Amino acid sequence: MTASPSGGRLPVGAEDDVETVLEAVRGWVEAIVPAAWVAAGRSGGPAAVRTVRTRADYEAWYPAFADSGLVVPNWPVAYGGLYLPPGVARRIDAELRPYNLGRLNPLGLNLAAPALFAHGTEGQRLRFLPPLVRNEEKWCQLFSEPGAGSDLASLATRAVRDGDEWVIDGQKVWTTWAHLSDMAVLLARTDPDVPKRRGVTYFLLDLHQPGVEVRPLRHLGGEVDFNEVFLAGARVLDAQRVGEVGDGWKVANATLSGERQMVSGAGSGGVDRIGGSGVGHLLDLAARSPGAGRVGGWGDPLVRQRLMRLHSEERIRDWTNQRVRAQLRAGRPPGPESSIGKVHQGDLNQRVQLTATDLLGLGGQAWPGAGDDYAADLPYEVRGMLRSRANTIEGGTTEINKNVVGERVLGLPREPDPYAGSPWRDVPRS
Predict the structure, then answer these.
(1) Residue 329 belongs to what domain range?
(2) Within this chain, do residues 149 and 201 fall inside the same structural domain, yes or no?
(3) Distance of alpha carbon 430 from alpha carbon 382, whole angstroms
(4) Is residue 5 one of the residues assigned to a domain?
(5) Are residues 128 and 92 in the same domain?
(6) What is the C-alpha separation between 81 and 130, in angstroms, rounded?
(7) Widest pairwise Cα distance in the chain
(8) pLDDT band with cut points at 50, 70 and 90 for residue 430
């Protein structure tokens, strides 16, 4: 069974055996993936593919990937998948890995989709999931606020009912990719007279409307990932409310667990970034300097020991993530395992990226400048190291995730809260 050159959904289903499915995937690769990408992937893996493919090339070709169902092979067909068992989906991932066919729209796939699967209506899933898979509507997350970061439940953005709509006023911050997004998952307070976790509601907000202002924030590495978003009279249909009014904290837990799962993945890399494979890139850097006596030399046993330790920890991270993905594929929201992975990965990726900079030697400490734009010529490894400083903050700080692990995994008592049970409006806020 092979895929036709015209593309379309891969002609396989849950009744097919693994080898039949993999044969169809290989045929699809030969017929649909550009020949230069295939040749590069077979000769040098994902890093080689990045040398023959630009981000724009990949985004232009991506609809063929999405139409095949291979972006989310375990999802139901109606939502853009193939409805294959989890074990088969993992085999497909392994088959495609050399060609670096990463999933675009990760915030939609990892943040919006878990909430829609767990708490959305069938109409919401049919409306939002297929264009999300095709990368036709990009998503971001409007949760954190200037006064509600680690204590997210204290958020102050208000949503007031107006007939079949809600009117939204407030400010969000540290919103990843809001400047590139079309839609957002939004937490807003709908009842200030009940305890903080019982008075918030979860919405799906269209960002292309009056009353939404996005202001980019440039970070240490010179890039714009984060934004602050101001909401002044923005509107959202009640039909785009997920879950019951006042029950948004329960819905948000699906998104937060998905976020921790996402940021406990491969780290700073991506489909178009050299070094996205983590330790694999470190091995390449070390191999370029085989002699002992130079920082990064493969001939140095201490360097080899450092790299093998990081490799072992990457494997542990992958196994932890597989447990979380198994939860998702079984139709259950990810549990506290995602916090375990988040705590581990935040520290691990910082050490991986710092090691990459060390392997560059002096090249990781000085580079040609470009006038006032100091970041324009940063080596990729240095940019990754600077970006990784956020890993222990984004997606919930390491301290908050350790609390989750302590309370929900180890069974330790919750931290004392003198305002537990008090109405939100009576709780002091900074």
Answers:
(1) 264-396
(2) yes
(3) 36
(4) no
(5) no
(6) 9
(7) 72
(8) low
Q: How far apart are CA 110 and CA 322, in angstroms?
A: 14
| Whole-number CA gyration radius for the chain | 23
Select which of 137, 145, 228, 259 is catalytic: 259
Instruction: State the average pLDDT over residues 329-347.
Output: 74
Whether 259 is a known active-site residue: answer yes
**H or E element that contains 299:** none
Query: Could you tell me if residue 313 is inside a domain?
Result: yes
Q: Is-contact 385 315, C-beta < 8 A?
A: no
Residue 13 belongs to some domain of the structure: no
Closest residue by Cα to residue 421 from 160, 191, 193: 193
Please tell me whether residues 193 and 174 are part of one structural domain: yes
Domain co-membership, 241 together with 269 = no
What CA–CA distance (Å, rounded) separates 41 from 57?
Answer: 16
pLDDT tens across 125-142, in order?
Answer: 999 999 999 999 999 999
Which among 74, 14, 10, 47 has a CA at the least distance from the CA of 356? 47
153 and 234: one domain?
yes
| Residue 4 within any structural domain of the chain | no
Do 347 and 232 reside in the same domain of the chain? no
The number of domains in the chain is: 3
Using CA atoms, how far residue 393 sits from 63, 326, 347, in Å, is 33, 26, 11
Residues 117 and 251 in one domain: yes
The answer to whether the beta carbons of residues 218 and 163 sit under 8 Å apart is: no
- Cβ within 8 Å of residue 41, ≥6 positions away: 48, 49, 98, 99, 100
Tracing tokens 């699809």 back to the chain, one arrives at: 28
Token pair belonging to 250? 């329960």
The larger pLDDT score, comparing residue 270 to residue 304, is at 304
- The 3-state DSSP class for residue 154 equals helix
